[in-house]
Amino acid sequence: MLQSKVFDKAALMFDADTTWYSTGETLSAYVDLGGADLDQLRPGEVIAELSSDTAASAGATILFQLKDCDQSGGTYAALTPVQVTTAAIPKADVSGVISRFTFPIPRSGVRRYLKFSVTVATAAFTAGKLTAGVVK
Predict the structure, then answer these.
(1) Which of 56, 85, 104, 133 could crosslink 7 through cysteines, CB 3.0-4.6 Å?
(2) Are the beta carbons of 8 and 38 closer than 8 angstroms?
């Protein structure tokens, strides 16, 4: 899938996940940046890739967001000093092509747990695969 960057299996948040949700639902996963194997990933970036067979109902949009927290089960907040949130991405921009999105991880101020969220808006996505994780 990704040619120039390689995911560390320990840093994957979504691994060709084929589960798509209905309008308004959010799918989230996190990675522990404080683990011994992951500490070298700071700074790095999160790359999300939607497969070329991504399909959705008419008018569907998808939104990606990175948040962080001190605890895996805590309350996640938008990254500071920079919020890492996309605008709603329309179906037409991700259908029929491999779509890659890159989200830089700030050099400092990021807490131990990094959460990547995907929100389906307007109409459901019905097919495709999502791979997302931290790369250096």
Answers:
(1) 133
(2) yes
Domain 13-135 top-level CATH class: mainly beta
Instruction: List, for residues 53-62, the tens digit of each pLDDT value.
Output: 888 888 888 8
Q: What is the pTM of this model?
A: 0.77
Q: Where are the domains of the chain?
A: 13-135
Please report which helix (H) or strand (E) contains residue 68, including its range: strand 61-69
The set of residues, in sequence order, having a beta carbon less than 8 Å from that of 131 and lying 6+ positions away, is 1, 2, 7, 12, 14, 15, 16, 17, 48, 49, 51
Cβ neighbours around 12 below 10 Å, total: 17
CA pair distance 32, 38, nearest whole angstrom: 7
